[in-house]
Description:
By secondary structure, this protein is of the alpha/beta class. The chain contains 13 helices and 22 strands.
Amino acid sequence: xxxxxxxxxxxxxxxxxxxxxxxxxxxxxxxxxxxxxxxxxxxxxxxxxxxxxxxxxxxxxxxxxxxxxxxxxxxxxxxxxxxxxxxxxxxxxxxxxxxxxxxxxxxxxxxxxxxxxxxxxxxxxxxxxxxxxxxxxxxxxxxxxxxxxxxxxxxxxxxxxxxxxxxxxxxxxxxxxxxxxxxxxxxxxxxxxxxxxxxxxxxxxxxxxxxxxxxxxxxxxxxxxxxxxxxxxxxxxxxxxxxxxxxxxxxxxxxxxxxxxxxxxxxxxxxxxxxxxxxxxxxxxxxxxxxxxxxxxxxxxxxxxxxxxxxxxxxxxxxxxxxxxxxxxxxxxxxxxxxxxxxxxxxxxxxxxxxxxxxxxxxxxxxxxxxxxxxxxxxxxxxxxxxxxxxxxxxxxxxxxxxxxxxxxxxxxxxxxxxxxxxxxxxxxxxxxxxxxxxxxxxxxxxxxxxxxxxxxxxxxxx
Length: 463
């Protein structure tokens, strides 16, 4: 019997599920946002201790490590990805900025879409001065009409590099019919900036990431992929190196938002987006089959978000070629899930613009500093603090007793920030916080099930 590790990095905690034969252990450690490889290794070490062995001993006898990560998702949310350049066919430089007619609505809630006067298109991931056109053309039959010129490619690439580009996306017209020009551009760039240079420039071709029609969707798929790729590659390389030093010789398997998984060397970065909840949906499908449950509402309330997925008539719904990531329409096929800012770390606050209205989320205290009760420096009251005040959490047995909660600090935070401004007592304030976050979650389930033509009474909820 060999060990298996399944690790999911969440917004607040990192979960690890370890098996060896029939022996099973579960571990939860705080997510370390400054370096996700730290919480990854912490989870492994804690898991090894559950079996009474060192991590090095366990890894040498480990069959597989499966990993679902939020690194790519965080890059998009925080807009802290690399500065990219884009090379496209001359005359089509504004494609990603014009978008489709409904680009302003992609990724937005229905309530925000109704506010037509104030809704805005998303801020581009690539600035306009970093998108350049090449005088080349391949027609709709894949025939070369205007040949590509090497000198022009070199000039345009040098300009992008001089402007600070650390990665280049190449998306030329009709490349899904004939990718020759895109491949030539990549070859020229790699010859000019080879692996032996410190300034090597990673290149992503739209014909490799998404060889399908639709200029906007194909280009955005390639851009999103490269935007999250570099940070993800660095973290995975760091984790892989640490594992090899400890004796683990097999590849890390990355969970995909398609429901499957692959080795890191065979994974497109864009397929890791939102992979954790998708794994939960497929877990629900499997467990549902054991109980003959064909209609399932999968829910996962974490520290930062509340994730929802559904299984309908024993099938998992999938978006084909029209999948929105953040605010960007892409051409990947992925399992449908929904995420809202309603978790244990969701911050309760007073919205003075609407007459002292109590709101919960979407801002989160995350793992650091976390809820006030964690006693790690947090000052904003959260759902966890409210649950502690109401008695739903045992302050002496949180996280299996490994993380005691500070009741007095949670009480004081809710009193000062919520109860006193509203003129109510602390218990009432905590009850309102809990009621609001419960309503958010219930409403989201209703929208994902009832408003899509299904009767919620026909479903079982997996929490």
